[in-house]
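Collaborator request log, item 7. Partner lab (contact: R.S.) asked for a structural prediction of Inositol 2-dehydrogenase to inform their binding assays.
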Amino acid sequence: MKTYRVAVIGLGVGRGHIEEAWATLPGQFELTVVCDLDAGRRDSVAQEYGCDASDDFDAVIAREDIDIVDICTPPALHLPQVESALSAGKHVICEKPLAGSLDEIERLELAERRAPGVLMPVFQYRFGAGAKAARRIIDEGIAGKPLVATAETHWFRDAAYFDNPWRGNLRAELGGTMTTHAIHIHDMMSWLMGPVEAVFGRMATRIHDIETEDTASASVAFASGALGSLSACTGSHDEFSRLFMAFEHVSFETTRAPYAVGRGPWTITARDPERQARCDEIARACADTPERFTGQMMAFHDALEAGAPPPVGVADARAAIAFLTAFYRSAATQRQVTLPLSDTDPARSGWLPAAS
Ligand SMILES: NC(=O)c1ccc[n+]([C@@H]2O[C@H](COP(=O)([O-])OP(=O)(O)OC[C@H]3O[C@@H](n4cnc5c(N)ncnc54)[C@H](O)[C@@H]3O)[C@@H](O)[C@H]2O)c1
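Returned to partner:
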């Protein structure tokens, strides 16, 4: 088994990747260097974990002893940094949102095809006992056809959270609570329910003096004919995430853990006792599944060792970016937007207003 040497770029949530994965899976990964413009952040992590520290992204990705570059910088930096790290021959992991438009996703697909390394976007909610059991129950045909879903991302963010130059800034963050927070549960929803085909969205900025939306709702139709209602807000004093999905034979409901939607046990209810027994059996078999960054990075290691595609790929980020494209277009025009967009649709270049 190979131990892959990792460079982490950006030490906000990047520190979480280290705590949950890079520093706790020693046979699989070795944290080799951390990179941040903030000297306090990089020195404290380097001291705690005994790795190198740098403020120079280009120098870090040029190092021959690095196998994986884990990009955890603000959103607008993802595209150029992922392209550079792939060109440098590394495997690349990147936080969400992977890019700000479908055109940019295409650039990254091309960059990955041309590079020796692979690109894995971070969608850590998919990892955990609840998500794994649901996926298996659906894949085995026990649940039947999807009918309806509700996805809620109700969190609280105070003014101090936005006291960071990229947060709340449309061009740096690329979007508000739908892009930065609810992207995870919406990824999970379409991973389990199937692709989204039509979106009607509404959004508002009601809590802080920021450029991005902090309150949003959407009505979606899935390609299967199932329907969904989504809401997201960063002013909810009761902080929770919740995904409910009714299928023909089985209903699934997550816990309310705000930041670990994949965590079990989910409430999985079948109408008939035989299906219930099979669901319970699967849930028991999945109970010890590693969750969040631990689960995703372990699965990444397995994929690298097997020469298989990463457990989350650019196609998954493409679906998330397509949904956001449709959501923002719909919120701006107050018309339903259908997916996929045509090859010539100008919305493929993104949802930010044209620079003046
Ligand atoms: N998956 C998740 O659950 C999750 C959670 C939080 C944030 N995120 C995502 O992670 C990214 C970072 O968010 P955050 O909350 O950690 O932000 P943050 O501002 O706390 O941290 C970003 C860090 O990147 C550093 N940085 C900026 N430019 C750099 C450069 N050129 N080279 C090296 N370092 C640089 C900054 O100094 C800062 O320390 C965002 O895309 C965000 O959406 C994901």
